Amino acid sequence: MDDEVISLGQIFSILRKHVIALIVAMCAGGVFAAAITYLVMQPKYESTAMVLVNRKQTAVGQQYNDLQTDLQMINTYKDIITKDVVLRPVRENLLKKGVVVGSTGDLARAISVTNNQNSQVMSVTAKADDPYTARSIVNETAEVFRTKITTIMTNAKNVTIISRGTLNKSAVSPRKKINIAVGLLAGLVLGILFAFLRALTDRTVKDSSFITDTLELPLLGTITDIDSSSIKLGTKGLRPTAGHSRR
Length: 247
Fold this sequence. Notes:
Layout: H1 8-17, H2 19-40, E1 45-54, H3 63-81, H4 84-96, H5 104-110, E2 111-114, E3 121-128, H6 131-152, E4 158-163, H7 176-201, H8 208-214
């Protein structure tokens, strides 16, 4: 017996047969994703400050080399910002101001530092559960870094806070629309898998051609369904067919 192959028409037939189940599964996935997004996930807010660090000015002929050195030092500055030498006084200052923060490790995970290629400007971003806390963290971090880096690295004399963190009341996560869309898609995929699983595990014979063509067996006869409403007790309402005798 040859392997069974599902045609494109059979695929559409299976999907059409289970269209209600697909819609229910897709809606269930969307509702589940919305519940997780709105009821479980904590909104996060961000604030960003821009910091520029230059080395000590040298002779005119050395300016190009100084620029290249400054670019190479960016990674060092990034590393210093997220270390205890900066974050410990940041945490102490925030607590004195009444801003509730976690440990220095929590602060390190809340702060990220980035810069564009060949740029001496660093973007210091803080993420927190509250927009006011995020702004306080990033501004205090930039201020402490500006003070500490001049003592840690003697050549880093020109530290400028180009822009301070601003209050951003729009949450950056979770992305509600994307989460719900993913939930709808996941529900639809699960519904399709369920429909095909039922179709593949259904071993009932749907067509007489399956017996003659696939199983290659002789067809002895067929039994049709009789509507229960048409069946009456006794002989009333029954009509004999050709080849049958009335009892």
